Amino acid sequence: MIQKTSKDSYNNLDVNRTKIVRDMILTMLYTYPKGLTDTELSSFFTKKGELLKPRVRRFELMKKGLVYSDRKRRCSISNKVALVWKVKRDIDRYIY
Fold first, then answer.
1. pLDDT tens digit string along 10-23?
2. What is the 3-state secondary structure (H, E, C) of the chain?
3. What CATH number is associated with residue 67?
């Protein structure tokens, strides 16, 4: 049987990890002003999105109005045409 304290600890870990991944995505997009595709963005994560799910976190940031799709271009990794994501340049900090 799993104790309630163990479940609470796990849930807190998940929330912290989610925020860290969103912060990392914003940092990467801010660092690359020409933007990145989802595949390019995922390549920066060691788990290849298995647990971190950068695409899902990027979608959350888009819904919050912090990132936007700029255009389509050929992805440097997959060689397929994909949306390019950029961070809004006027944000200095954000709150979840």
1. 555 567 778 888 88
2. CCCHHHHHHHHHHHHHHHHHHHHHHHHHHHHCCCCECHHHHHCCCCCCCCCCCHHHHHHHHHHCCCEEEEEEEECCCCCCEEEEEEECCCCCCCCC
3. 1.10.10
